[in-house]
TrEMBL record:
Protein name (database record): Mre11 DNA-binding domain-containing protein
Residues annotated as signal peptide: none
GO molecular function annotations of the record: 3'-5'-DNA exonuclease activity; manganese ion binding; single-stranded DNA endodeoxyribonuclease activity
Organism from which the protein derives: Trichoplax adhaerens (Trichoplax reptans)
UniProt-listed SMART domains: Mre11_DNA_bind
Amino acid sequence: ASDCHLGYKEKDPIRGHDSLVTFEEVFEIAKEHEVVDFVLLGGDLFHENKPSRATLHGCIEILRKYCLGDKPCQVEFLSDQSVNFWSSSFPVINYEDPNYNISTPVFTIHGNHDDPSGSKNLSAIDLLSSSGLVNYFGKTSSVDEISISPLLMQKGKSKLAVYGLGSVRDERLHRLFASEKITMLKPKMDTDNWFNIMVVHQNRVKHGEKNYIPEEFLSDFLDLVIWGHEHESLITPEWNPKTNFFVCQPGSTVATSLTEGEAKRKHVAILKVFNKTFKVEEIPLNTVRPFYIDELCLQETGISCDERHEQEIVSYVKKKIESMISKAEAEHSGSTRQPTEPLIRLKVDYSGGYIPFNSLRFGQQFVGRVANPKDIVHFYKKRTRREITEMESIENAELPISILERTVKIENIITELLANDSSYQMKFLSEKAIGDAVRIFVDKEENDIIEEYV
C-alpha cells in the first residue's frame, strides 16, 4: 500500500476519520491473509510533517493492534542492519528485537508529506521506528550523492532484495540520476538469484523538464518497482520494455484532491514472490469514501446563456448532481464502515457567455447528503485553440512575472534578489542555504529552522 495520508481533513466533522478507517482496513486484510509476511508502505504515511497527537495516537493504536503478536515471522533477515537502519538509535529489525513480539512487521519509506526535517533531520516515522512499531528505511544522509543498500531477506528458497529511497525533491534527484551520483549496491552472493524490488516516492508523471523521475533512470536489474506518491491506483504491474522491469502503482488509500485519478477505485495488493517470479493479488478497499466526478458543458444543454435563464441552469445542474448521488447509493460496497455521504464533483464548462452561479449557496441544499457541499461544483472555461497556440509559443520563452507568480518558489525569489542587487549580497550565508531555510519554514512549519541555519 502507499500514501495513507493519516490525518487528512482530521478537523472536518464528516471526513475527519476517513484516513484512519481505511488504514485499519489495510491491516485487517493483511491479518485475514495469513500468508502475509510483512506490510510494505510506499511513503506519505502521514499527511502532515507534524501530525497531531490524535493522528499519531490513532496510528499507534492500529499498529499495536495488528502488528504485535506471538506468531513468528518466517522471513530471515540477512543484510547488515546497522547499514539498512543507520539513522535509528536502535538499528535492529523489530521482529528480531528480543524486547518485542512482532507478528506482522511493517517496512516504510518516507514521502514528501512526512519527510524528515529540523536540526536532527527527524520525522514522525522516526518516532514510530524508535518505538519499535515500524522499520524505517530509505533515508539518505547526503544530498550530493546517494548510495542505496538493499534489505536482504530469505524465506525458503526465495531471496528478496528490497531497495528503498524516501522522497527527495524531484529536481535534485533528477540531477543526481543524470550525473550518475546514485549507486545501487547489489548482493555479493548469488547476485542473479535475488528478486529485486525498489520502493520510490516521486513524481512518475512528467510535470516539467526535471520535475519527475523517468523510469529509465532506475537500474535495469530490478524486477519490480513499487511507485508511491501518485494517487491513482494502477495496481496491475505494468511492463516497461526499455528497462525490463514491472511497475506497480498502488495509489492512495484516501482521496486528498477532487480529481479524476482519485475517483478511481482504491486498492491494496498482496505480492507473492517465488524465486524470480511473482504474482500480484489485487484487493479493492471497501471502506474508502465513495467519490464520483463528472463534467457538464452548458453549451450542450441547449439552455440560453441569458442571465434570465439562471434558475433553469441551476435546476439542470441539480438534476445532474442528484443522479450522481443516486449512483453512489446504488454502488455502495455494503460495508458498515464505508461512509454513506459521497464526495461529488461536477466540473461545469461555462464557455460561451454563461455566468457562473454561487456554488457555495448551491451546495447548501446537499448538506447531510454529500461530504463536500462547499465545493461540489467547479466552474471552468476551456481554452480556445488560439489560447493553446499562444501558450505553446511562449512555453520556452521568458515569461513575465504576472504569469509565473502562481508557481514561483520562495527560494528562487531569494536567490534572484541576492544575485541581482549587490547591497543584499550574503556575507556569511549562501543563497541556497537561506532559500532552503525559508522553504522549510513555510512548508514544514519548522519555526526554528532559520535560527539553526544562521
